[in-house]
Amino acid sequence: MATPVIMPRQGQSVESCIITKWFKAKGDKVAVGDLLFNYETDKAAFDEESKVEGTVLAIYYVEGDDVPCLTNVCVIGNEGENIDEFNPSSDSAQAPTPEPSAQAHSASPQSADATAASAETLTSSPTSAQATSGELKISPRAKNLAQKHGVDYRKAAPSGPNGRIIEQDIRKLIDSGILVTSAASDEYLSSQKSAEGTGLGGRVRTSDLAEASVMTAEVEEVKLSNIRKVIAKAMHNSLSTMAQLTLNSSFDATDVLSYREKIKVGMDKTGVGNITINDMILYAVAKTLESHRDLNAHYFDDKMLLFKSVNLGIAVDTPRGLMVPTLFGSNSKTLNQLSTDAKALIEACQKGTISPDSLKGGTFTVTNLGALGIESFTPVINPPQTGILGVNTIEIKAKEVDGKIIHYKSIGLSLTFDHRALDGAPAAKFLKELATNLENFSAILAK
Amino acid sequence: MGYDLIVIGGGPGGYLAAERAGHAGLKTLLIEKRFIGGVCLNEGCIPSKALLYSAKIFDYARFSEKYGVTTEGAKFDHSVALERKNKVVKSLVSGVKGALKGSKVTVIDGEAKILGRGAEGFQVAVGDDVHVSERLLIATGSESIVPPIKGVPEGVKKGFVLTNREILDIEKVPEKLVIVGGGVIGLEMASYFNSVGSKVTIIEMLGNIAGATDKDIAQILMKSYQKKGIEFKLNSKVTQVKAKSVVYEAEGKSLEAPADKVLLSIGRRPVTQGFGLENIGVELEKSAIKTDRFGRTNIAGVYAAGDVNGVYMFAHTAYREAEVCVNHMIGKKDQMRYDAIPAVIYTNPEVAGVGETEETAKAKGIEFDCATLTMKYSGRYVAENEDGEGICKVLVHKTRRNVIGVHLIGSYASEMILSAGMMIELEMKVEDIKEFVFPHPTVCEVIREGIFQL
Questions:
Q1: Phi-psi domain of A298 (left: phi exceeds 0; alpha: psi -120 through 50; beta: other)
Q2: Structural contact between residues B221 and B349, judged by C-beta atoms closer than 8 angstroms
Q3: Alpha helix positions (H), B38-170
Q4: C-beta of residue B426 within 8 angstroms of C-beta of residue B436
């Protein structure tokens, strides 16, 4: 019995996912647990493993396709099985088979042709769902046409769904004359270089290839990943629509540092995990935000949502780019709970297995660049939040105590807030209270 | 009101640029000190072709027994040939003038002098009038090099030593003509005067004639000329011009060639002096104006096209450079490429080549395959040429398999070289060209044969 593999729904808000890589081809044998394909949402990436054993009978979507959740992606079963009903693009799933006798020899060339044809229609049809990811998407038809005419298809303006280059785009490109000479074409199209054509009608000539290799020797063109695009849009939107400014302050880290040492020493006996400075800062921020609701809020043009619960966003640097998982209810967690939960979230982000639902709902964000030696910066708010706290590196500072100069370890804090939502004084008061709380960390633990 | 463009020099580069600029709507002024049409039209390409054609017909009349034609009493009247040449020139010059008028170009006969650059633009004086323009195009061309050899200045004064300018107008065919320099101009003039009765001697400093032409082809051309009675003195250096002879040095010996006239055709030099180029600080390199691929000089708004940039001294290069300059001025994307510029020598047999020769390809370290084949592969060539020695060479890039050079000696070579130029310009591969249909029977089929040998 053939089994369809559907595109899983990752989180309630996810409508579709992009197939990033196939590990199996049509006709391949698969066992339970074999990796079938990778897919990603705009925020995270996932693996799909086979839950059944058999042969891949059909693959309905290619790499780069944006597949609606719960749609059939491929079919696994025994060779020769009729799988027409699973084809997401055919209506035959419901329609009765017109000629019962045809079923008798379902492996006939006719039905094989039909399957092949429908698969082809999918990959080249302008209506098939595609999406932008790192790779250039072009229909095989368009690619063939481009190669035949010696045009650089990478320069085509995609008009297919989700940025896929289709035949008409290549036709346009041929008309607009972005061409490559016959002699230059193989080398040019197989290289990642993009050369300015200096030949007849702007054709790329062999001499341009040499120039391109000199000119672009140090430059690599990288297509933006979805995550990068999402970050870019969010960051630009943030800075272009809000009234952001940053206040810088610092606190005497003596107390948090010594508390951390204490925990570390007693870790085995107490069962308390490795608490980091960042965990302590998150804890103090969550507690302090309880009395500064303007900063634990979402700002909209005509209203603000003030949250009771503090859902801290934690900025995490991952190989895929910046991710901000949300630590829901941070203010009601114990330090140990908070530390454990934060670690789990960060790890999931690093692995790319984070649920998209964990990547939203934040009410305030903390970003820590201290480990990288940053002394002060201007974090960018994640809208519609009203504030973000940047944590800086540990610096040695001096202060006068009882007429004596003493040195102490200090940690810088950079608070960016939205002046539309609150004024400078309340933001400064939050920062001051946060510093005080951190300087007396043992005391707030008792609260 | 000022001009959008002042073109200095009305040769192929200048008049075509003015025409195109005028057509594109630029208010254009063309200044020419001598004749519209320049050297090409008045004392170069065109008049020499008119004369060479007369000579060719004379040759046909005398040497066609093999083809079943015997002419008795064939005579050549040099003065009629000259008259006809002048008519041809006149008709073409008036054609250019008409085209300039049609493109609304203002033409001033006179000597231009660039005064400098003011707030309004470049100031160019012609006599007492000062014209102002946003841009300048220098198309002053080139002139024959007159070397400082003993006796040359005196010979020039007496009319014994001539350049291309004077020789095209000499009234009498000299009995003995010594040509100093075996390049294109020297060879074409040798061809004409040999046909019409002169005893021609060519003295060439290098070991080969025809400059950068394919070495095998130059050799075939020389042999064919020797058969016709032209003498070649290679590796020979002229040391003195006497009243009735030219003294030259070969293999350490001083020799003398008797002459009634001497043609100096050792080369041409860009004209960059005497019209105020220095007043705006235009940069020269090896006595030519330095230009980039858009025809721009180092001074913004100043362009140069044609021989004056010293790249390829051909009228057809000038045409193209002129168009590139104007396109750059009007913001149209274009640039100069020099890989597919054909070179033709209108000798009989004709020589034509485009792209790399075996020599230049080797020098550049390009790996290539070369097919060399006799023109006898062409049925038409055999039908029309008794004992023809024409050849065709096709050079193909070893790895990319595109045509990089084609070189021909034989009839119609000048007319068929364009097809090879297009193959090179478009970087067509051998496999692409195999799909072309060549008309049969034509001489150009030999290129097709060459392609199929590669």
A1: beta
A2: yes
A3: 38-43, 45-62, 78-102, 152-158, 164-167
A4: no
Which one is catalytic: B23, B78, B316, B440? B440
Q: Which residue range is the domain that position A48 belongs to?
A: 3-124
Query: What total number of domains does chain A contain?
Result: 3
**A221 part of a folded domain:** no
Q: Are B388 and B377 in contact (CB under 8 A)?
A: no
pLDDT tens-digit map of B156-203: 999 999 999 999 999 999 999 999 999 999 999 999 999 999 999 999
* Per-residue H/E/C for chain A: CCEEEECCCCCCCCCEEEEEEECCCCCCEECCCCEEEEEECCCCEEEEECCCCEEEEEECCCCCCEEECCCEEEEEECCCCCCHHHCCCCHHHCCCCCCHHHHHCCCCHHHHHHHHHHHHHHHHCCCCCCCCCCCCCECHHHHHHHHHHCECHHHCCCCCHHHCECHHHHHHHHHHCCEECHHHHHHHHHCCCCCCCCCHHHCECHHHHHHHHHHCCCCCCCCCCHHHHHHHHHHHHHHHHCCEEEEEEEEECHHHHHHHHHHHHHHHHHCCCCCCHHHHHHHHHHHHHCCCHHHCEEEECCEEEECCCCCEEECEEECCEEECCEECCHHHCCHHHHHHHHHHHHHHHHHCCCCHHHHCCCCEEEEECHHHCCCCCCCCCCCCECEEEEEEEEEEEEEEECCEEEEEEEEEEEEEEECCCCCHHHHHHHHHHHHHHHHCHHHHHHC
Cβ neighbours of B339 in A, within 8 Å: 207
Domain boundary among B281, B301, B329: B329
A185-238 pLDDT, tens digit each: 777 777 666 667 788 877 888 888 876 655 555 567 777 777 788 888 888 999
Comparing CA positions, the residue from A137, A93, A66, A100 lying closest to residue A4 is A93
Instruction: Say if residue B257 is in the same domain as residue B273.
Output: no
Same domain for B185 and B241: yes
A to B CB pairs, distance under 8 Å? 39
Residues B245 and B274 in one domain: no
Same domain, B112 and B30: yes
User: Cα distance from A170 to chain B (closest Cα, Å)?
Assistant: 20
The dihedral through the CA atoms of A207, A212, A214, A217 has a sign that is negative
- On whether both B412 and B384 belong to a single domain, the answer is yes
pLDDT at A316 exceeding the cut of 70: yes
In a domain, B338, yes or no: no
Task: Give the residue numbers spanning the domain of B70.
Answer: 3-144+269-329
CA distance B233 to B70: 34
pTM of the model: 0.60
A182, A202, A203: residue with CB nearest B402: A182
CATH number of the domain at B308, please.
3.50.50.60
ipTM score over 0.85, yes or no: no
**Contacts with B427 from chain A: Cβ below 8 Å:** 181-184, 199, 203, 205-206
Residue (of B29, B37, B34) closest to B125 by Cα position: B29
- Do residues A195 and A237 both lie within one domain? no
Q: How far is A311 from chain B (nearest CA, A)?
A: 57
* Inter-chain residue contact B335 with A198, CB threshold 8 Å: yes
Q: What are phi and psi of A409, to 5 degrees?
A: -90, 130
Q: Which residues of B touch A150 (CB under 8 A)?
A: none
Euclidean distance between CA atoms A74 and A56, whole angstroms: 7
Each residue's pLDDT tens digit, B204-214: 999 999 989 99
Among B216, B233, B266, the domain boundary falls at B266
Report d(CA A153, CA A185) in Å as an integer: 11
Q: Write out pLDDT tens, residues A94-147.
A: 433 334 443 444 444 444 444 433 333 333 333 333 333 456 788 877 888 887
